[in-house]
Amino acid sequence: MKSYKDKFIKHLQKTGRATATQIAYDKDISQLLEFLEKNNLHNLEQVTSQDLTAFKNQLKKEGYTLKSISRKLNSIKSFFKFLNKEGITSNNPAINVKHPKYEIQPPRILSPLEYRALRDACREDVRMYTIVELLLQTGIRIGELANLQLQDIDFDHNLLKIRAHESHSARQIPLNSLAKTAIQNYLKIRPKTRNTTLFVTKTGNPFLVRNIRTSINRYFRIAGIKNAKVNDLRHTFIVEQLKKGASIVELSKIAGHKRLSTTEKYLQYLETQPTPTKKAKLAEL
Description:
It contains 12 helices and 3 strands, in the order H-H-H-H-H-H-H-E-E-E-H-H-H-H-H. The chain is mainly alpha-helical.
């Protein structure tokens, strides 16, 4: 069964699915296969919807949240759909397995007091201050930030080039004065290295996503900001830009949303509906 799982992961790679998605699917399906083998099921053709429901119930007993269980079911449904399409199995037992119902939590939007406190907490750490400022002023994803190269910064035209990465397409983002100044100050103290990655460690190696995330979480704690995650800076950017009248169409392009409806969902978190403008220039937070 493991060979079929490996074949499925290779299929995900060929179709350009994000690395994080591949890792999650691999882990979820491995967990299912382990459960099946413990229950003396060694042939995927023998698996029934009852077996998959039993796995779902086992996850509940182990304390997984309903959201996590639903995500794991997505992995499993995709896996069996692939097996069925490839002719490896003659049926798809995952079709009739229902997702658990759970309440979707709204995105965490930082208040001006909170994101100013975060700025103050890391102000003496020039590199982290710049990272926080970029995430807050541009709304880019943490993976996009980690992939930024020196040549992606266009100071003459105040633009930030975001490279195509996995399932996300390339785009350009206006660079406001706060973000621009933060980058310029960081470049003055950036370690000298042949590495062209914008954010590097003291030894000149790329500053990895997991380490960036850990550092930001540390400053959240120092600033006394509870229940916040790195991606909340992106949520905050989008909502604040909408409040200040940014065009939804332009903001959707800047945020790199594949569908306009993704951006429109943020309108429900505004107390009053803004008067949109056509200006692409980002408001300063």
